[in-house]
Amino acid sequence: MAEEAHIALFVAQYRHSPEDCPARLGWGELLLSHISTATAARYSVTIEAEAFIDAQHVLLLVVEAASLEAVERFLAVLPGSGDLTVLRACTAEEAVERGTCGPCA
Fold it and tell me: What percent of the chain clears pLDDT 90, i.e. is strictly above it?
């Protein structure tokens, strides 16, 4: 019997400068096509939530994947130049069940 892969929660932050804004430079359609459930699935990533922080040029994604590397591969082709940070996360319920918001299991 095959062992089931552990799926973990991650929060990704992609920050770009106003000058490199994908929407302003005509890369918006590329961004939307990449940050889609279909594209994420090709990288074994599931998008749980996404949002741009108003006027901050920051995209936040909450995703599930088997590894940090899978999330980084999925987001490596974001258009324009910017800084990507991917952090391991857990739900509030999981933290309360563990009795700590320390490192996620």
Answer: 44
Q: What angle do CA 11, 47, 71 make, to 5 degrees?
A: 55
Q: pLDDT tens, 58-100?
A: 999 999 999 999 999 999 877 667 889 999 998 888 788 887 7
The tokens for 105 are 């299991």
Q: How many helices (H) and strands (E) does the chain have?
A: 4, 4
CA 52 from chain centre, in angstroms, equals 12
Taking the alpha carbons at both ends of the chain, their separation in whole angstroms is: 24
- Please give the DSSP secondary-structure letter assigned to residue 4: P
Q: What is d(CA 34, CA 38) in angstroms, rounded to the nearest whole number?
A: 8
Residue indicated by tokens 């062992």:
3
Structure tokens at 22: 């994908």
Instruction: Identify whether the C-beta of residue 22 lies closer than 8 Å to the C-beta of residue 30.
Output: yes
E-only strand ranges, 1-105: 8-15, 45-53, 58-65, 83-89
pTM of the model: 0.84
